[in-house]
């Protein structure tokens, strides 16, 4: 029966949400982590940074020489308590799995692929699209990559203020700090990638427009 007939003249009824199965969540988390790890591979190959806890981890990795995966896993540890308390056990467990998978993949991926040539401008754009798609998949399946993503999702669920904009605000502060260590061109290209990533999330992760988790 047409939606208008169901809901009355001039009204349409939103389709009902079907719960994700365990397999749905597993493939969504796997896809999200792989895409994000590929984005990190692009990022570190070009010597760029990004925002959120991933960006903080990249900066710490550059400064200390420690592998990104280990730093990223450690930086996220304090946020799991907040995620458990505010977002629930399921969200926290899925987020822990996503962070652990990304951390492991980022350690392995340099041995699986290399870039003979990658234009920095195109690389920054490609990073934004790939990582944005990965994060969007994680959000749709009730997970995140921890840290600022947890806080951003909490704010979106409570106030409607989009997660992408919260993350963008954090990114601006992080990039200002990055200017103390990196050259201006590197920071500008990094900021471009981060803006594209956050726009992908802000435009596509909308409960008022799309059916999401």
Automatic annotation (TrEMBL):
Keywords on record: Cell membrane, Membrane, Transmembrane, Transmembrane helix
Topology in membrane: Multi-pass membrane protein
GO cellular component entries: plasma membrane
Membrane-spanning segments: 29-48, 60-83, 95-115, 121-139, 160-180, 186-203
Subcellular location, record wording: Cell membrane
Position of the signal peptide: none
Coiled coil residues, start to end: none
Entry keyword annotation includes Membrane: yes
Cited InterPro entries: UPF0750_membrane (IPR051461), YitT (IPR003740)
The UniProt record lists the keyword Transmembrane: yes
Name of the protein in question: Transporter
Naturally occurring in which organism (per UniProt): Rubellimicrobium mesophilum DSM 19309
């Amino acid at each position: 029966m047409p939606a208008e007939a169901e809901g009355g003249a001039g009204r349409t009824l939103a389709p009902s949400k079907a719960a994700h199965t365990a397999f749905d969540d597993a493939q969504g988390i796997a896809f999200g982590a792989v895409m994000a790890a590929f984005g990190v591979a692009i990022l570190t190959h070009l010597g760029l940074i990004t925002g959120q806890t991933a960006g903080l981890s990249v900066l710490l990795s550059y400064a200390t020489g420690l592998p990104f995966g280990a730093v990223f896993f450690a930086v996220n540890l304090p946020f799991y308590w907040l995620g458990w308390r505010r977002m629930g056990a399921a969200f926290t467990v899925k987020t822990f799995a996503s962070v652990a998978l990304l951390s492991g993949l980022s350690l392995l991926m340099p041995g699986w692929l290399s870039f003979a040539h990658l234009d920095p401008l195109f690389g920054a754009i490609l990073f934004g699209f790939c990582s944005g798609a990965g994060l969007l998949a994680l959000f749709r399946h009730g997970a995140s990559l921890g840290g600022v993503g947890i806080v951003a999702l909490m704010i979106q669920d409570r106030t409607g203020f989009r997660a992408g904009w919260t993350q963008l605000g954090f990114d601006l502060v992080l990039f200002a700090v990055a200017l103390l260590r990196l050259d201006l061109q590197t920071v500008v290209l990094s900021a471009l990638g981060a803006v594209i990533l956050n726009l992908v999330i802000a435009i596509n992760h909308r409960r008022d427009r799309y059916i999401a988790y």
